[in-house]
Amino acid sequence: MMSDKLNLGVIIGSTREGRWAPAPAKWIAGVAERHGAFDVDLIDLLDADLPQHMAERDMWSTQDDPSDEVAALSERLHRADAFIVVSGEYNLSIPAALKHAIDYYMNEWAAKPVAMVTYGGKLSGGQNAAQHLRQIFPELRTMTVRNTISFPRFYQHFDDRGEFTKFDESEPAAKTLLDELHWWSRALANARAATPMPSPY
């Protein structure tokens, strides 16, 4: 029996040594699993190991024979009905590895919704990164949802055991985000099934 759940890709958007991104990514993935509307795929860009040099054969979902790494991530992105991107804020923007991964693909992102979970060392909590993603994704015909979750000055909120203390209080906001993401996921999945998205060119 096929599951009625939609497929959600949670993307760990940082590859830096010592990164904090896996912690909020695993948290939101866990909340999404408990939410019950999604099958969750946790996608770590560090493990994806995309080539640094973007060769012609790998670019923009071409029909050429892509490298193994590009093809493997393409399959996971294609399978997803929605995304949550988890990103820190690097110099008022997103990590280079995240932009690199976005730029490798086009059709994989199209007509799907994306939500954002951000963090940063300043009071903005990574919202500059979120705003840059809101500028980038529409070019790929990807819809960014209204709600976000941010963790400002995240380094200040660890207890004596090294556990982050703000996840529990953020769960209501996460449920609201997931409810919105699920609505758009279902609406756009139905639209994709009904008719192919027209070419933008």
From TrEMBL:
Domain NADPH-dependent FMN reductase-like: 8-154
InterPro entries tied to this protein: Flavoprotein-like_sf, FMN_Rdtase-like_dom, NAD(P)H-dep_reductase
The organism of origin for this protein: Glycomyces niveus
Name this polypeptide is given: NAD(P)H-dependent oxidoreductase
UniProt-listed Pfam families: FMN_red
